[in-house]
Write a structure and sequence with these properties.
Elements lengths: L3 E4 L2 E4 L4 E7 L6 E9 L6 E7 L4 E3 L7 E6 L4 E6 L8 E9 L4 E3 L3 E6 L1
Parallel strand pairs: 2-11
Antiparallel strand pairs: 1-3, 3-8, 4-5, 4-9, 5-6, 7-8, 9-10, 9-11
């Protein structure tokens, strides 16, 4: 069973920054892609950003130019640096890991609140 531990959420004013971290309980070399999703109250869960094992990245249009996803294989950790935060970025952010075996795992989520 893969465990994902997220951290870094919190309250920030609009225009501020936060960095979310997700530490995985297995070697990054068993992982295909890692990503961040978010879910705001009343909304469906949506993709924020994803990074593959080759380092390719993809972002939701709403966060392009403001968020940066990265991974540290030595620490089995994926990050998302969130800059120029907006109130509409307020949501629970979930880490997602897809293994080479095809299994998919989710973290428990971390709350990000952006005040106006």
């Amino acid at each position: 069973q893969v465990q994902l531990v997220e951290s870094g959420g919190g309250l920030v004013q609009a225009g501020g920054s936060l960095r979310l971290s997700c530490a995985a309980s297995l070697s990054m070399f068993g992982i295909d892609a890692m990503g961040w999703y978010r879910q705001a109250p009343g909304n469906e869960r949506e993709l924020v950003a994803v990074i593959t094992s080759t380092g390719s990245t993809n972002y939701a249009d709403s966060v392009k130019g403001r968020f940066t996803i990265s991974r540290d294989n030595a620490k089995n950790t994926v990050y998302v640096q969130m800059d120029s935060l907006k109130p509409e970025d307020t949501a629970v952010y979930y880490c997602n890991v897809g293994l080479r075996s095809g299994s998919v795992y989710w973290g428990k989520g971390t709350l990000v609140t952006v005040s106006s």
